[in-house]
Amino acid sequence: MPAELEPGGHESPEDAASPAHALELLCHLGPAAHGSTACVAWEPAGDGKRVISLADNHILLWDLQESSSQAVLASSASLEGKGQLKFTTGRWSPHHNCTQVATANDTAVRGWDTRTMSQIYCIESAHGQLVRDLDFNPNKQYYLASCGDDCRVKFWDTRNVAEPVKTLEEHSHWVWGVRYNHSHDQLVLTGSSDSRVILSNMVSISSEPFGHLVDDADLSDQEDRRPEEKSQEPPQDSVIATYEEHEDSVYAVDWSSADPWLFASLSYDGRLVINRVPRALKYHILL
Amino acid sequence: MAAAAAAGRGPGSGPGGSPEGPEAEAPERRRKAHGMLKLYYGLSEVEAAGRPAGPDPLDPTDLNGAHFDPEVYLDKLRRECPLAQLMDSETDMVRQIRALDSDMQTLVYENYNKFISATDTIRKMKNDFRKMEDEMDRLATNMAVITDFSARISATLQDRHERITKLAGVHALLRKLQFLFELPSRLTKCVELGAYGQAVRYQGRARAVLQQYQHLPSFRAIQDDCQVITARLAQQLRQRFREGGSGAPEQAECVELLLALGEPAEELCEEFLARGRARLEEELRGLEAELGPSPPAPDVLEFTDRGGSGFVGGLCQVAAAYQELFAAQGPAGAEKLAAFARELGSRYFVLVERRLAQEQGGSDNSLLVRALDRFHRRLRAPGALLAAAGLAEAATEIVERVARERLGQHLQGLQSAFLGCLTDVRQALAAPRVAGKEGPGLAELLANVASSTLSHIKASLASVHLFTAKEVSFSNKPYFRGEFCSQGVRESLIVGFIRSMCQTAQNFCDSPGEKGGATPPALLLLLSRLCLDYETATISYILTLTDEQFLVQDQSPVTPVSTLCAEARETARRLLTHYVKVQGLVISQMLRKSVETRDWLSTLEPRNVRAVMKRVVEDTTAIDVQVGLLYEEGVRKAQSSDSSKRTFSVYSSSRQQGRYAPSYTPSAPMDTNLLSNIQKLFSERIDVFSPVEFNKVSVLTGIIKISLKTLLECVRLRTFGRFGLQQVQVDCHFLQLYLWRFVADEELVHLLLDEVVASAALRCPDPVPMEPSVVEVICERG
Known about the structure:
The complex is a heterodimer of chains A (287) and B (782).
Chain A: H1 13-17, E1 37-42, E2 50-55, E3 58-65, E4 70-78, E5 89-92, E6 100-105, E7 108-113, E8 118-123, E9 131-136, E10 143-148, E11 153-157, E12 166-168, E13 175-180, E14 187-192, E15 197-201, H2 212-219, H3 226-231, E16 238-243, E17 250-255, E18 262-267, E19 272-276, H4 279-286
Antiparallel strand pairs in A: 1-2, 2-3, 3-4, 5-6, 6-7, 7-8, 9-10, 10-11, 11-12, 13-14, 14-15, 15-16, 17-18, 18-19
Chain B: H1 2-8, H2 22-40, H3 44-50, H4 70-80, H5 83-193, H6 196-212, H7 217-243, H8 247-260, H9 265-291, H10 300-325, H11 330-359, H12 365-378, H13 380-385, H14 391-430, H15 442-465, H16 478-509, H17 521-549, H18 561-596, H19 611-630, H20 643-660, H21 669-682, H22 696-716, H23 722-739, H24 746-762, H25 772-781
Protein name (chain B): Vacuolar protein sorting-associated protein 51 homolog
GO cellular component, one term (chain B): GARP complex
Subcellular location (chain B): Golgi apparatus, trans-Golgi network; Recycling endosome
């Protein structure tokens, strides 16, 4: 499999302006000595020089040098254990100066420290079946979302991995992707092979204050508004919308990096659906 | 009427009598008479209203009216009527007059005789009264004479009578004096003989007199003697009282005598209670010793018997004697006794409770109930005697507490019995199967579990029922009539057990492993069926049974049958859904492994169906058999008789041409997509992990859906060579041939399998499908 290719590389803004521009191979990620690559992830912040790739049971950290024309293997670690262990997916945490990576293999989720390439936490049997995707909360350290073949989406606090913080069970088949909204992290998008995309409002575990926290904060300076605030129910975690435009399994969902209210989902039949967060909810969050 | 008739006689009255007799006119006349009466009593208005053309009562021309004026009437007649009519009315009038006359005569004759006889009677009465008056006068004079005589006799006897009275008085006085002079010697003799009662009585009789005449020296001497003797007597009595041992009645007698001697009641009362306490404490110590740590304690019945006769009996005696002796003490004395009883009673209760607590482990309810009954019954006597001490209430409380604990214990017993049943089932399921025999008879296991659980419930009900038996003394307490039946037995025992059973079953659904390895799927299936059976029949049966046995009179709200049924149904549904998931997962894993571990790019041309597919079909058949043991068939969509042929033709010819035939040519994928999309627009969305219904077909459909969807997703992740695609084609056809019969809607299987093949074709750089006929041959051979 031509998995060692790193197609695309960096595209400069002017490249995007001319759609006919052909892709250009910048470099290879090392020799193919580690088996088939399951996942490649860029460092989410910093100078964009570091890339993690997951191949079979190896986790490889690459350093892209000389304007990304050459990739040097900086460090690596491998997973040892019974049977054939294979990484299925990985995700780079945007927190802690980008020193943490989470990976998934079979039903387990593991966290790695990229400085020492050692395992820092492990959620054994995070899901009943295969874990399909992971995402870090962009605004709240330690919070991680995972989804898998048991139709569930689970939210974890990586400091205490004994129990999930929250579990969603809305899909009726494997959940293939889970994504936090980049700026309003209560919005969580999930795509599943039951051909549905579900947008959930996870207020209770988001970084934005809710419920009594708001009341307490407003208590001191806004005495007159208090009765009104009191009467308002604290918002509940809920499913905002279920999008059923797809006719086949949805394999990828993601938020727009430009507009925080825009998201896209891609399904097997080649249909790309772009949706907006409902206007009412948008105003509710903003105001 | 008579006046009217007389007036009517005026003009043209002749002997032209009426041809008809008076009988014919009778009703007419009667009606007229009625009219008069009614007029008199003011009823005419009503009458007039009833009869529209009625005569006006004020009409002067109305013959029967009160305001009849003969002149006006005649004038009117003369003016208005022709001759014939005048003649007629004349005859009519004459007839009426005649009739009236004869009536009047009859009445006079009838009443004349009566008048005469009345006059005779009055005359006779007058004579009789005159005679009686004379006799009364004579009687009065006789009485006067008698009174006179009587007065004279009493006057003569007066004198003698007074003298006799005086003599009698002297005699009595002398007798009393004699008694007083003899008193000291009598008292001494009594004391010597031990006839304390007699002595005290003598002393009591003399005391007042001596007190009164103590200023006379002779009496003084007697009094002194008496006092000395009395002091000695009191001394001896006290001695006897303190020595005790001679039983409560004798002590009571002593105290009674001492009281009569005028000893201070307060002190005696204290002492009496102290004595009683000592004796009762001894009883309590005896009971405690029986309780002791040594195991061969007597059975609870014996214990309560001893407690009842020893302690409670003693307490009764003390209380009865006390109340009799110290009744004069008033409320303060009663209070003292109540405190005494309360204190000792509470100590007794502590002992009884300790004994009963030892009994809690035991299973013999009848013995316990009998013991409680005796305990309660015995305490009713002092309870009546000592209402203030609240012994009966405390005893009832203890009984209630014990009953409540019993209920809890039964609930636990039921739960553990149920868990035991489940363990047995697990063992039976895990036991190595006899070769060639499919499953260890799930239906029998189910029947075993159901019957043993039911018999446990019945046994519990029966043994709890003892508490409410008629002959048990506490069964008519309000607690046992109401709350115990409804809240205790029905709610906490029966409903509680059913709930906990559902809960236990549900716990199997979300076992922490989630891989289904912990619970054998057959157990899930069995439990689901059990819960469903409960929902349909058993719950209502058990509750009816309970309600019948325990005539629930309490008005407190109870859980309705429907709620419980809904809970059981929900549990059954969850279990079955979980079963489907677990079984689906097993097959899915098999399919996934088979797809993921194979190198599809470099497979050889398919010669036969892969073994794993046969395995899938075998497993599905096994599941089908397993489910079939417990669940009914269920409904499928209607299908033609020769289903397999038809599906085959649909699948391989029309479908193939319609759907992935275009993908024979490399330029076709767009068309395929388009076609498949259009197809999907018209087919319904398949909910893969959807709740199932309670029948075999639905369960199997669920499992197959999950498996095939997994196969589809796995295939999409792989890349296929030409032969790889062909292998998938063969496998799918094989599955198609064998799986359709399990599902409710075979269209579903077609759809998913088509999807698999189409996906494989898309993932194939060189999609050259196999000839349908070859596929068929391979499948039939395999």
